[in-house]
């Protein structure tokens, strides 16, 4: 009887170990599968660098901001954020930077060194629908990406409806046009150089981006506005009638003023002014080209 009990006990113990091992493998498999489905979006919110701002991702469909996807991220002191989406969203994305409700979202106006509150203003970027292989996306959210959103909205108003594929096409066209207009090759995937410190190691494209944003800041200062005011003015021009009612070309001259100012601490010398000067002429009353399918 003793032998029989011992045998039974041993058999049960072995069975339990095998069962637990099986459960452990299954749990590990699920965790790996979930991890592989994650999408990471990281970047910088900049008007100058916007600190303490909330960053959210939404599904973007025709004329609609869908539900929020994933959690809310908060920008650090340099405007850097990291978002994690639980899976491929299956739609284009609208990334929105705003105050978190505590009035703590602020940036340094590059042309004056004065801290400015983001307030009720949103700054947005539109991301074409990622494909299944894209797990890590870089998305800058800046004055330029906000202008691209306005261009998208002006085009959207021309149609009764758009499919998800057409939404993606219009987003790509809007981002590409603002890249061409500014001289920044990729307004989403290039992270602007830090506007508050010397950043000699930044790439040329990152410095070009910072240069353009500094030009906007200087132009705004020259006409007694801040960057957010000028952004709203330009965005309103585009979204209302697809026309620039403001003189885009003044940004080039303003950048030259910024380069010589004591607030230029970003290693942006005159060589980057040539980038701004080379941007396409967009005089007052310029109509942005329509997107055709």
Please state roughly what percent of the residues sit in beta strands, choosing from under 5%, 5-15%, 15-25%, 25-35%, 35-45% or over 45%. 15-25%
* Series of secondary-structure elements, N-terminal to C-terminal: HEEEEEEEEEEEHHHHEHHE
Compute the average pLDDT: 81
End-to-end Cα distance, whole Å, is 84 Å
Helix content: 40-55%
Q: Could you say how many structural domains there are in total?
A: 1
Name the structural class: alpha+beta
Low-confidence stretches: 2-34
Total of helices: 7
Sheet having the most strands:
4 strands, mixed
Total beta strand runs = 13
Outline type: globular
Estimated radius of gyration: 25 Å
Structural summary, described in words:
- This protein is α+β, with helices and mostly antiparallel strands and 293 residues long.
- The chain has one domain.
- Helix content is 40%, strand content 22%.
- The chain has 7 helices and 13 strands.
- The strands form 4 sheets. Strands 1, 5, 10 and 11 form a 4-stranded mixed beta sheet that branches. Strands 4-3-6-9 form a 4-stranded antiparallel beta sheet.
- A hairpin with a 2-residue loop joins β3 and β4.
- α2 crosses α3, α2 runs parallel beside α5 and α4 crosses α5.
- The longest helix is centred in the first third of the chain and has 36 residues.
- The N terminus is likely disordered.
């Amino acid at each position: 009887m003793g032998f029989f009990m011992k045998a039974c006990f041993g058999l049960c113990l072995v069975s339990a170990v095998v069962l637990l091992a099986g459960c452990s493998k299954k749990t590990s498999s699920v965790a790996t599968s979930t991890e592989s489905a994650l999408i990471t979006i990281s970047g910088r919110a900049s008007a100058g660098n916007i600190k303490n701002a909330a960053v959210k991702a939404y599904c973007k469909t025709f004329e609609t901001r869908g539900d929020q996807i994933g959690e809310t991220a908060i920008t650090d002191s340099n405007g850097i954020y990291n978002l994690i989406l639980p899976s491929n969203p299956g739609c284009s994305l609208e990334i929105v930077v705003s105050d978190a409700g505590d009035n703590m979202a602020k940036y340094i106006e590059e042309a004056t060194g004065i801290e400015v509150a983001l307030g009720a203003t949103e700054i947005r970027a539109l991301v074409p629908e990622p494909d299944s292989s894209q797990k890590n996306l870089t998305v800058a959210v800046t004055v330029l990406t906000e202008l691209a959103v306005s261009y998208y909205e002006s085009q959207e108003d021309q149609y009764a409806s758009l499919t998800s594929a057409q939404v993606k096409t219009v987003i790509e066209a809007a981002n590409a046009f603002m890249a061409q207009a500014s001289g920044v090759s990729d307004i989403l995937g290039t992270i602007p150089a830090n506007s508050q410190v010397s950043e000699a190691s930044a790439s040329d494209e990152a410095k070009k981006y910072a240069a353009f944003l500094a030009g906007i800041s200087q132009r705004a200062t020259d006409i007694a506005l801040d960057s957010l005011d000028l952004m709203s003015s330009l965005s309103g021009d585009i979204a209302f009638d697809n026309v620039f009612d403001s003189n885009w070309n003044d940004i080039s001259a303003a950048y030259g003023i910024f380069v010589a100012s004591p607030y230029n601490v970003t290693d942006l010398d005159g060589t980057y002014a040539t980038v701004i000067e080379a941007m396409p002429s967009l005089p007052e009353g310029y109509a942005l080209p329509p997107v055709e399918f």
